Amino acid sequence: MPTTERDQLLERVTRDPAIQLGRPVIRGTRVPVARIVGALSAGASHAELREDYGLVDEDIRAALAFAAKTLDETEIHTLPAAANLQEVAAAEGSG
Asked: In this structure, is the dihedral angle defined by the CA atoms of residues 52, 22, 74 and 81, taken in order, positive or negative?
């Protein structure tokens, strides 16, 4: 099976219990994926991340690919709306 560009990016992310308590980091660094994504969401540019953390553009893209993959794999369980909580509680109590 051929390796996709996304797979190649994801290979740049690693976890090691001895580095950042096992949080996902960019391979060969101690820079957590969450720090990169958080900095981007706060308005940091790729140039700032490259300068501040010694990253290359592929590292930044890898962090975003990892975040996207993680969200894709996360199950979301919805809860009843607050207005319906009393109805749910009443139904469970009378059942």
From this structure: negative
Average pLDDT, the chain: 89
Answering whether pTM is above 0.70, one says yes
| pLDDT exceeds 50 at position 2 | no
Three-class SS state of 13? strand
12's CB contacts (< 8 A; 6+ apart) are 26, 27, 58, 59, 62
- One-letter identity of residue 50: R
DSSP code string of 14-69: E-BTTBGGG--EETTS--BHHHHHHHHHTT--HHHHHHHH---HHHHHHHHHHHHH
Q: What does CATH list as the number for 5-94? A: 1.10.10.10
The tally of CA atoms less than 13 A away on the side-chain side of residue 27 is 10
